[in-house]
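Researcher: Please translate sequence to structure tokens.
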Amino acid sequence: MNASPEPRRTHVMSVKEARLLFLEALDQVEPEILRKLRDEVFPYFDSDTGLSWLTCREDPSYESLREALESWADEFNIASSWIFQAALRNLWVWFVADPSDIAGPDLIWHHDLDLGSTLTHRDDLASTSMPLSWDPARESPKAFRERALTDFERMLDRYIERKKKTQALRTGATDGPLPLFAPLRWLALHRAKGLSPEAIAALYDERDDAPDPGLIQDALSQAEEMLR
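Model: Translation complete:
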């Protein structure tokens, strides 16, 4: 294997950007993560207004949901406050969606919440309010529909901009040969699939400029820091 020089990043990736890319990497290397979230955790979710991880962790009435989430995260070695919050966001989207929309094998992360926050303070609870909640006693169907459409357009605009930005981050090169996305994908392989640096290096075709396991080990530590 050819040893590669230590990469030097020319783009300072924010924590939120790194977390978005890590979720995409997890989905690429292990689709079972979202499928098991749906099949083994979603049955315990029952909240049409959303739920923060802080509430889920501290409120005894959510004990079954919390235990299911923690078991799911432990299986794939991805337990952290922000992952739990991202999972709860997905569970809420699935809860308000048509069941047929999530019946198939292809699922995606719905991460419109602020992944730069671990939601460890009570002030963060306000950021988990969901725009599609509706109280018929206080709002007419017409007003709700107009508000929901406005919120959808806003979320759609954010989604388009986010996808454009993450695509640029995923394909952007550093001064060295290592793309910004590579350390996060290696971390996903290491966490979710249990692959060692040597096993990750072995995934490269002989025709590729395969990275040295030592470089991969350093990149894994770098990726961990990027997510904090």
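Researcher: Any highlights?
Model: Residues 15-130 form one domain.
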